[in-house]
Amino acid sequence: MFAVFLTSGLFLGWSLGANDAANVFGTAVGTRMISFKKAAIFCGIFVILGAVISGAGAAKTLGELGAVNAIAGAFVVALAAAITVYWLTILGYPVSTTQAIVGAIVGWDLFSGTLIDYGALEKIVLSWVISPVLAAIFSALLYKAIAHLIQHVKVHMFLLDSLTRAGLLLAGIAGAYSLGANNISNVVGIFVPISPFADVSFLGMFKLNGAQQLFFIGAVAIAVGTFTYGKKVMLTVGQGITEMSPVAALVAVLANAMILFLFASQDLQTFLLGHGLPAFPLVPVSSSQAIVGSVIGIGLVKGGRGIRWRLLGEISVAWMATPIVAVLISFVSLFILQNVFQQKTYIPVEYQVTAEAEQRIRAAGIRTDHLTDLQEKTYPNASQFQKALSQRAILNAREISVVMSATEIDPIALTIQAANRINNPSITADQKIAVLGLVGKAFTHRWQLEMALAEKSPEWKPIPGDKEQNDKIMLDLDYIYRLIRSTQ
Amino acid sequence: MAESILKKRIGIEKEIDEFLDQVSEAGLMCKNGMDAYLKGNMEAFAQCLTSIRNTEHKGDALRRSIEQDLYKKTLIPESRGDVMELLEDMDALLDRFTGLIWQFEIERPNICSEFHEDFKELLQYSIEAVEADVRSCRAFFKDITAVADHIHKVSFWEKESDKVSTRLQQAIFGRQDLRLSHKMHLRFFTKQVDRIADEAEDVADRLNIYVIKRTL
Predict the structure, then answer these.
(1) Run of H or E including B203
(2) If you average pLDDT over every residue of chain B, what do you get?
(3) N- or C-end of chain B: fewer Cβ atoms within 10 A?
(4) From CA A24, how far away is CA A323, in angstroms rounded?
């Protein structure tokens, strides 16, 4: 069954490779500075390296699909996102795979009655505007600066050619590495807890854990996607929007990398703030949309007459269509899978104001007197409980979030089978001992498990102000939670 | 890999410089050849003919090698077509110099002594126009902003060449003692020399467009 579920992840990987490789090598291939074959080979190799070396780290191991609580549901969500990206790839439009996944998850949210993450939808809409505008400004400024420099340094045509080619190759390699590292979790991350792979050692030189093997397979799917179907979108980015010179091609990828680094890197912001320096605001930026903006920026600097506005209009429609189509495909597919194939596409999550939950809500400084008449009732899903809640009290977003998480019924029984299957390198020995110490115990709410773990080991205890550590604990908890679910 | 890119680049840069040297040298050899012919020193003329023929062969070989390198190593994809065309144009100018000397060898025109200075002046201006083209070409590869400084000189020399050509043809056809066939023969040679400057100007015009296309 694992192999069947994995196919949709691999299809998503293939679609991602066919579409997103254009973000890193599109302009180089479009300007004929690097042949498509060479670009695909380099892209494939470095996507695999990025996925296996950096993708299996603590951050975002489960990816966006981590929001889906049943593996059959994740299969459909990944499939819906993959079909959406595949369709738009056939048409040759550069679109955001992440936005397709978020759209497909919204489809699942609607189907399962889970609360829709409006924040994620807001980010998508913002990204449509912010990514191209920011990238266009950066690329236009960078292009002006580089053109000025080239004119003053008097570089020989062939030296400039060599430097540009080398720059495009290096930028492409770095981009491919980060493409693999950042996206692999979206492709196969959800399957890590049910992965049957055991650790393998290669001649005692290096070892690949189960997650890394899964990530390797996912990365191969991305690489195959780039090789078999990546050219069309690459040519749209590199040739279709406007004719570009090789220097412009390099500027476009550099501008793209710069805005991703400056405006989307959590690590950079943490570093700058940690050193008392002003940080760039974190904004939702999509690489697929930023590269289009970079190309437009250069086209505008050159007078704007060479820009094919009609194609840009089509691309904008494709961006908007991506999450919408993914929502529709996801919803319809889930309906079919659940009702025709009798597969469990989501685990119903009930809500109830238990005594423990009420205590927790009160501890968070929220009045509970208006929740008393909710105590006897069990609500079948988040939407219905939130509706009932809003009829009784006016709460702000934080308070709603506290009440929702405190009242979520999630019966968990920690078994020895689940504890023994922990093979995520992010889980430390101390954390594992704490999990083993809770074997045989049952919890009504998820937060009860979290508190029990925090009592057993300080490595499970969130530290106020330490965002990095707390994020890691959150992801580790998510992993443990899914492991328990997969063995139940 | 970096080393191979560097070698590739230095190799082709050197070849282009050598090729343009051949074009420049062909002009000087042509001048020597015509001087020798006008002086009646046929031995020196034959030597010039051999030299210019070798220069033409060397130029052809270099041009072919550069063109092959450009395609095989997929260099400067955005300007490859323009550079190929430019090299072919420059090679055509080189061939014009060679062709002129060959025509002197084959047709042995009888150039009256009073026209010698005008013929020399006419050829000098054509050579200057080609020289300005060569300098423009070098600038096109090395310092694109300097191309304009050389290109306008091509037009200047072409105009000077036109003036001498007109004056010379008027003088030829003003001579009553020459047969019409002789006059036409001399006019043919005048035109042949003048055409070099005309073609140099055409090359400069095209180069101007290539510069616009490459300007960042």
Answers:
(1) helix B180-214
(2) 91
(3) N
(4) 22
ipTM field: 0.85
Contact flag B216-A247 (C-beta cutoff 8 Å):
yes
Separation between Cα atoms, residue B138 and residue B133, nearest integer Å: 9
d(CA A341, CA A335): 9
Q: Where are the domains positioned within chain A?
A: 2-130+154-247+302-339, 350-407, 412-487
* Nearest CA-CA partner of A266 in A442, A482, A467: A467
| 3-state DSSP assignment of residue A385 | helix
Tracing tokens 């919408």 back to the chain, one arrives at A324
Using CB atoms and an 8 Å cut-off, which of residues 107-166 of chain B contact chain A? 140-145
Polymer length of chain B: 216
Residue A65: name the closest of A322, A326, A265, A257 by CA. Answer: A326
Residue type, B79: S
Burial (CB count <10 Å: 0-12, 13-18, 19+), residue B71 = exposed
Task: Collect all residues of chain A within an 8 Å Cβ-Cβ radius of residue B142.
Answer: 154, 156-157
What's the pTM? Answer: 0.81
Q: Are strands A442-443 and A200-202 parallel, antiparallel or unpaired?
A: unpaired
Q: Which of A471, A67, A135 is nearest to A284 (CA)?
A: A135
**Residues of chain B where predicted confidence (pLDDT) is lower than 70:** 1-10
- Dihedral sign for Cα atoms in the order A45, A48, A49, A50: positive
Q: Is B91 helix (H, G, I), strand (E, B) or coil?
A: helix
CB contact (8 A) between residue A161 and residue B75: yes
Cβ atoms of A243 and A308 closer than 8 Å: no
What CATH topology corresponds to B2-214?
Methane Monooxygenase Hydroxylase; Chain G, domain 1 (1.20.58)
Instruction: Give the start-to-end residue ranges of the domains of chain B.
Output: 2-214
- What confidence tens digit (pLDDT) does each residue in A157-213 have? 999 999 999 999 999 999 999 888 888 888 887 777 777 777 777 777 777 777 788
CA distance A271 to B201: 61
Hey, how many other C-beta atoms are within 10 angstroms of the C-beta on B114? 10
Q: Do B77 and A166 touch (CB under 8 A)?
A: no
DSSP state of A346: -
Q: Which two tokens stand for residue A431?
A: 């954390």
Q: Per DSSP, what are the bridge partners of residue A201?
A: A207
Distance set, CA A472 to CA A63, A71, A211, A272 (Å)? 13, 23, 17, 20
